[in-house]
Amino acid sequence: MEKITLTLEEREAKTPNQLRREGKIPATIYGRGAASQSVQVTEKDFGKLPSAAYSHVIELNGGKLGKISALIRHVQRKATTHQILNIEFYRVQKDRKLTVQVPVKLVGTSPAVQAGGQLLEVHQEVEVECLPKDIPDFVEVNLELITEIDQGIHFKELTLSDNVKVLNPPDDVVVRVVAPRAAHAEEKPAAPVEAEPAEAPAS
After folding, report:
1. Which domain holds residue 32?
2. Which of 30, 57, 91 is the last residue of a domain?
3. 78 & 105 share domain
4. How far is the first Cα of the chain from the last one, in angstroms, to the nearest whole number?
5. Contact (CB, 8 A) for 80 and 63
6. Which among 4, 5, 13, 120 has the fewest CB atoms less than 10 Å away?
7. CB 173 within 8 A of CB 122
8. What does the DSSP assignment read for 69-104?
9. With a threshold of 0.85, does the pTM exceed it?
């Protein structure tokens, strides 16, 4: 995947509200072995980031701060307007494993769907643990393996690199095909959830 970059600026001596009125977002960089740093990014630049930026290591270009490899740890938004209030970046170490949420990519067509069943996507992300260089762009789920109604694919059946460990419960269902009436009963509106990568516990 092409490297994702974002320009940082040193935090100005202004209140957070002043920065936001000027189109800038207050932010913090923290991580193991380094002091926390207060910085800022332009709202315009941050808004241009692709969705993959929320689950992959990005390069922060900070002028005097240098180049920093980091993950978007948390994005705080105003509940009423969804305006971004603050961003937390986590500084990563190339030799230290991380826990991240990676999107699911559905491929193929299920014979069970062709037979009249309805596809039910239970999980849209997979929680994985790996080194920064091994974070996959997505986790592929082959729908052709679902041949009957009420059959599904579990986390333990996903195929990933040996360098990537799935942390979700092995027997939890990622996706399955159900009878149309059952699907209507089970579907619930899903609120968008931001990926919150975190450092893996020290072994």
Report:
1. 5-91
2. 91
3. no
4. 29
5. no
6. 13
7. yes
8. EEEEEEEEE-TTT--EEEEEEEE--TTS-EEEEEEE
9. no
